[in-house]
């Protein structure tokens, strides 16, 4: 991992460009204190993480279903539910037929 100060970044931005081209993480500092990190967008961790974050946000906003989320992330329902849970997203797994059976038993 490289480290670049704000002043160095302002005077020679090519250092950051070179690091990104080489897919190196770069710590950005201000007065020797870390304030950010620069990552190449074609880094697999970033693209997968960004894709996952956007899809989870779409799920949270009821734009896509759990099944669509699983399909887009190529993961099982069980694994997707675990990821959602780890991200603090409430997930309820139920079978509609089981609910109908319970309702019919009450009637």
Please give a handful of descriptors for the protein shown.
three-stranded mixed beta sheet, alpha+beta, single chain, elongated, 107 residues
Largest sheet: 3 strands, mixed
Order of helices and strands: EHHEEHHHH
Q: How much strand?
A: 5-15%
Helix content: 55-70%
Helical element count?
6
Poorly predicted spans: none
- Which structural class should the secondary elements be placed in? alpha+beta
Instruction: Report how far the terminal alpha carbons are from each other.
Output: 65 Å
Q: What's the number of structural domains?
A: 2
Output mean pLDDT: 87
Radius of gyration from the alpha-carbon trace, in angstroms: 22 Å
**Annotation, overall tally of beta strands:** 3
Description:
The chain has 107 residues and is α+β, with helices and mostly antiparallel strands. The protein folds into two domains: 2-38; 44-90. Helices cover 56% and strands 14% of the residues. It has six helices and three strands. The chain has a three-stranded mixed sheet with strand order 1-2-3. Helix 3 runs antiparallel to helix 4 (66-73) and helix 4 packs across helix 5. The radius of gyration is 22 Å and the shape is elongated. The relative contact order is 0.08. The model has no long low-confidence stretch (mean pLDDT 87).
